[in-house]
Amino acid sequence: MGNRVGIGVIGGSGFYSLLDDAEEIDVATPYGPPSDKITLGRIGDRAVAFVPRHGREHQFPPHRIPYRANMWALRSLGARQILAPSAVGSLKTELGPGALVIPDQLVDRTASRAQTYYDAGGAVHVSFADPYCPSGRVAAVNTARDAGWDTVDGGTLVVIEGPRFSTRAESKWFASAGWSIIGMTGHPEAVLARELALCYTSLSLVTDHDAGVEAGEGVTHDEVMAFFAQNVERMRSLVGDVVTALPEERTCSCGNALDGIKLPFELP
């Protein structure tokens, strides 16, 4: 297949119409099939591959998404920069629905997910102090602000196992730690991207306040999906704009994440 694309997008089914000249292909990986067929196409003069995170029928709950296969498939097609739009809850009163957060830190509170490619053949330790691509973050923040988004530059995304939402006590605990937003899919995507020397940038749309932030019955799935559906066209437009704003040549450190490390296998 060669280096057919340079940018990968991992999102929901509402992003299928993102690409021009689109074609769907099956991609095999050592970790099984990805969530669904990969859609190849273009945004302007940038070649892009898209994978629906949960599958086109939303058949994979957060803890069952084939994260390793998704990231491997995108790299095998030539993607080196990854954009990951997602819906998140807010852990801060002042951060309400409709805000866009471009996080710079991540906390893992998952429990059962395969989160490394290097679980055999020798120890491989990859630096993960700063989980997100600095160049991608700058492009996302500037593009979103130019488009009129209420954009927060930085913040900590805590990723929970799911598929349930947090208890009120858990939510208050996360907020008391100073974390900003909460979701179910940002990990292990980010660490797998780093293990493949990819750039990874999260575009986190706040859809609700989490259970510990405000009174009421707590978060419901229907409310989250309804809000995201109301904003999917705007998010799709933003992703397209960020794609074109990403640097064509990588100068960040993401591509050097594996320098000096002896890998147990060859990367695609």
Main features:
268 residues, alpha/beta, Rossmann fold, 5 helices, 11 strands
Q: Largest sheet, described in full?
A: 11 strands, mixed
Determine the number of helices (DSSP H or I, runs of at least 4 residues). Answer: 5
**Whole-number tally of structural domains:** 1
The CATH architecture: 3-Layer(aba) Sandwich
CATH class bucket: Alpha Beta
In terms of DSSP E residues, the strand content is 15-25%
What gap, in angstroms, lies between the N and C termini? Answer: 11 Å
Q: Looking at CATH, which topology would you report?
A: Rossmann fold
Oligomer: single chain
Helix/strand order: EEEEHEEEHEEHEHEH
How large is the radius of gyration?
17 Å
| Number of E-type strands | 11
- Shape designation: globular
Task: List the uncertain runs.
Answer: none
CATH superfamily, called what?
Answer: Nucleoside phosphorylase domain
Output the structural class: alpha/beta
What percent of the residues sit in helical stretches (DSSP H or I)?
Answer: 10-25%
Mean pLDDT over the full residue set = 92
Task: Give an account of the 3D structure.
The chain is α/β, with parallel strands linked by helices and 268 residues long. The chain has a single domain (7-256), classed as Nucleoside phosphorylase domain (Rossmann fold), CATH 3.40.50.1580. It has helices spanning 67-76, 134-146, 168-176, 189-195, 221-245, and strands at residues 7-11, 20-25, 38-43, 46-52, 81-90, 100-102, 105-109, 151-153, 156-160, 181-183, 199-209. Strands 1, 2, 3, 4, 5, 6, 7, 8, 9, 10 and 11 form an eleven-stranded mixed β-sheet that branches. α3 (168-176) links the parallel β9 and β10 (181-183). The protein is globular, with a radius of gyration of 17 Å. The mean pLDDT is 92.
